[in-house]
Specification:
Keywords: Cell membrane, Membrane, Transmembrane, Transmembrane helix. The protein has 677 residues and is of the alpha+beta class. Helix content is 64%, strand content 9%. It is built from 21 helices and 11 strands.
Length: 677
């Protein structure tokens, strides 16, 4: 690359980053927190009938109002509060004991009451209204002390907490990444270049998210996850390019591998588009361009910076201060040992990963609630106070709407079911409303069981519509279970085809899929052991073990971690394939490939692991779960799978690694990726 071309590329990159920074400056204000449940036509009909027949709106915000006594001043203040809230733009309805006389809205022992609000519009609009209500109405107001909780303020608080946690994560990861890069490259400028490329990727990510948010709802977690993913991948790709440049100057070959790797990660993440939850689909929409930007930036901007830096890259060499092995690359020596006794190395590793995966066998799944927030969160402490004074599920019950059903008896009889607190029935015309307050978390397995029991009850005449959080959870699980096979098929078929086109070997591609699944299942098992069962909580800081994992997290982890797994597979196989094509010696190719890439892969895994592990500093347990889970998946894959299982398997398989039936050989000869491409 000429100096003129390099300067042009850097200039265009600076202009692009400046534009992305301008576009994405206010990206946080255009994100939302929600999209965790699948839409249900039945629940929407039930809500409409409840609204039209009973004048009931499911509240998405609750105000907990405490007062010293039921005095006339309190009554006047409570009535005025309810009236002012009802008049606010964005508030569809406001119900309290003072304007309805409903005894359920007043604590049995007195001293507190509830104002149940229904905030209109989409989730973004509801969150904006919730912020206004919290700002204007919470705290001390005359004789009243007011606190807020519920879906809308909870989502708004999680959004703010996520923004703060992202800053903390980046500040935590940045110095560690710089230190690792300095240890790898041993000169300050060479260590700084991947960091610069990572920063370019982060700023570009914010611009991409801002544009995407104009056309579709984007989860706030997209900012946390895609920013860190883009930053980590950009540094990983830059590391590979820089190492190859220092080794033999073959940046072109490294660029081909990096772009191929970026495509594999993007395809893996694209499987999230299959799921009709915008929490997942918006992550895919944002992550795909971010991953590709990281790859393209690493093979365009980085080589241009290398040209412009020239000999300055080697200034300030710290090698004399740092230890260096005199026995050759440690990964090459390890590969040599594994080649001599592959079974003896592979069996303990496989058994260890299976042991780590064992807790996944008793995994339980639910959905997040206010317990993902810090213990001191106002939304969470208010929810605890309401549950203590009014009972769990009093204001968001499991509800059956009976249309033309003469006898609601079988439904009111659910009062005797374990997990049911109270059952209330009301009739207007030919419609019964049966409200079932649960004594168990609505998003738990017990809440799901009750929702499914309700769905199995079919009256002889009439129609039954069901709604409530437990119904939404059960429906979401059904939707995910229905779509997961398609996502698995997309990822596995696409990864197989890409790896086959890259290597020409069927067994190599199948092996990559199996080992990727093994390492990912092991990380799932660790997540169950820590976050579901509550063990080793000191590793990640304070959090509340709910007894289940969020049902969307394994889906998200699979698509992201499997893509990263294939990322390292491509790096390793690229060098093994080069050596095999040059020598035809499978064992020598494996040893040489691991010797040349082992340190790069382990360093890359450490770098992206640091980025992901920084999420553990979050105050929200779901981000802790994602951060630690992805970190373990990356670490296990890079060290145990790529470092031990891959060379052991390839030694046992021998030349069969590169076998393909005649038809597929012709496909590879015609469409496969060649060294000169």
């Amino acid at each position: 690359m000429s100096g003129t071309r390099a300067r042009l590329i850097v200039l265009l990159a600076v202009l692009g980053v400046g534009l992305a920074a301008w576009v994405g400056a206010d990206v946080a204000g255009h994100l939302s927190n929600g999209g965790y449940v699948a839409a249900s036509a039945e629940s929407e009909r039930a809500e409409r009938v409840l609204r039209e027949t009973f004048g009931v709106e499911r509240p998405n915000m609750l105000l907990h109002v405490t007062a010293p006594a039921d005095e006339s001043a309190v009554v006047r203040a409570g009535s005025d509060l309810t009236r002012r809230l009802a008049a606010l733009p964005g508030v569809v309805s406001a119900h309290s004991y003072w304007n309805t006389g409903d005894p359920r809205l007043k604590a049995p022992g007195g001293g507190s009451a509830i104002v149940a609000l229904r905030l209109g519009g989409d989730e973004n609009a509801a969150q904006r209204t919730a912020r206004q209500v919290v700002h204007d109405f919470t705290g001390h107001h005359g004789p009243l002390v007011i606190a807020a909780t519920g879906e809308a303020p909870g989502n708004a608080e999680a959004l703010d907490q996520g923004d703060a946690d992202l800053v903390t994560a980046e500040l935590t990861a940045a110095p560690v990444i710089l230190l690792v890069l300095l240890l790898v490259f041993r000169t300050p400028l060479a260590a700084l270049l991947p960091f610069v490329v990572g920063a370019v990727s982060v700023v570009s990510t914010m611009g991409v998210l801002r544009i995407v948010a104009e056309f579709t709802a984007v989860s706030t977690f997209a900012l946390n996850i895609t920013t860190l993913l883009g930053f980590g991948l950009a540094i990983d790709y830059s590391l590979f390019v820089l190492v190859r440049h220092r080794e033999d100057g073959d940046v072109r070959s490294a660029a081909r591998t990096v772009l191929f790797s970026a495509v594999t990660v993007a395809i893996s993440v694209s499987a999230l588009l299959i799921f009709p939850l915008y929490f997942l689909s918006s992550l895919a929409i944002a992550a795909i361009p971010v991953v590709l930007i990281a790859g393209v930036t690493s093979v365009t901007v980085l080589p241009a910076l290398i040209v412009l830096c020239g000999q300055w890259m080697e200034c300030g060499d710290l090698s004399r201060f740092l230890p260096r092995s005199t026995k050759g690359p440690i990964w090459g020596r390890l590969a040599g040992l594994i080649m001599r006794r592959p079974v003896s190395w592979a069996v303990p590793v496989v058994l260890g990963l299976l042991l780590l995966a064992a807790p996944f066998g008793h995994a339980r799944f639910g959905l997040t609630d206010e317990r993902i927030l810090p213990p001191e969160s106002p939304v969470r402490t208010t929810a605890v106070a309401i549950e203590r004074e009014f009972g769990r599920g009093a204001f968001d019950p499991l509800t059956a709407v009976l249309i033309g059903v003469p006898d609601p008896g079988p439904y009111t009889a659910l009062a005797g079911e374990p997990g049911v607190s109270t059952v209330d029935a009301e009739k207007r015309g030919d419609v019964h409303r049966v409200s079932i307050a649960l004594s168990v978390p609505p998003y738990s397995n017990e809440g799901e069981r009750l929702a499914r029991k309700l769905s199995e009850m079919h009256p002889a005449t009439g129609e039954v519509l069901r709604t409530g959080p437990s119904v939404a959870f059960a429906h979401t699980k059904d939707v995910l279970a229905e779509r997961i096979p398609y996502a698995l098929a997309l990822v596995c078929v696409a990864m197989f085809l890409l790896l086959f086109l890259f290597t020409g070997g069927v067994l190599v591609a199948v092996k990559a899929l199996l080992f990727g699944a093994l390492s990912l299942t092991a990380s799932f098992g660790a997540m169950v052991f820590i976050f579901q069962d509550g063990n080793l909580a000191w590793l990640v800081g304070d959090f509340t073990a709910t007894g289940y994992l969020d049902v969307t997290v394994p889906v998200l982890m699979f698509c992201v971690a499997f893509g990263l797994s294939m990322d390292y597979e491509v790096f390793l196989l690229a060098r093994i394939r080069e050596e095999y094509l040059a020598t035809g010696d499978n064992a020598r190719a494996v040893v040489s490939g691991l010797a040349k890439t082992g340190s790069v892969i382990s360093s890359a895994a450490l770098l992206i692991g640091v980025v992901l592990l920084a999420l553990v500093t979050s105050e929200m347990s779901v981000l802790k779960l994602l951060g630690l889970g992805l970190f373990l998946a990356v670490l296990v894959d890079a060290v145990l799978v790529r470092g031990v299982l891959v060379p052991a398997f390839m030694k046992i398989a021998g030349r069969a690694n590169w076998w393909a039936p005649p038809l597929l050989r012709r496909v590879h000869a015609r469409l496969g990726i060649k060294e000169n491409q």
